[in-house]
Amino acid sequence: MTQQTEKSAAELVQQASEQLSQLVREELRLATAEMREKGRRAGRGGGLYGGAALVGVLALQALVATVIAALALVLPVWASALIVTAVLAITAAVLAGQGRRGPVRPRR
């Protein structure tokens, strides 16, 4: 009744174990490759955000120079620069004070 082509239970368990091990290794390779690709995309995106932040800071510096130049039309240049510097210092102090208190929690 039993044929020689049929495998014993021990052989079937061993074969299943080998196939499961191979499947797990292949899934780990696939997951590693996917994470590597996601890391590359995130790195590029982060670099672009960093570049955008730098250009934004440069734009703000140009805006400050423009405000000084505009005030210099009616005041001496040193007074214009002093006024703009004082406004920026006060703004920085207010923001630092707000940040020191922590985030504002909305009322319910």
UniProtKB/TrEMBL annotation:
Regions crossing the membrane: 46-71, 77-97
Pfam families per record: Phage_holin_3_6
Alphabetical keyword list: Membrane, Transmembrane, Transmembrane helix
Domain of life, source organism: Bacteria
Name used for this protein in its record: Phage holin family protein
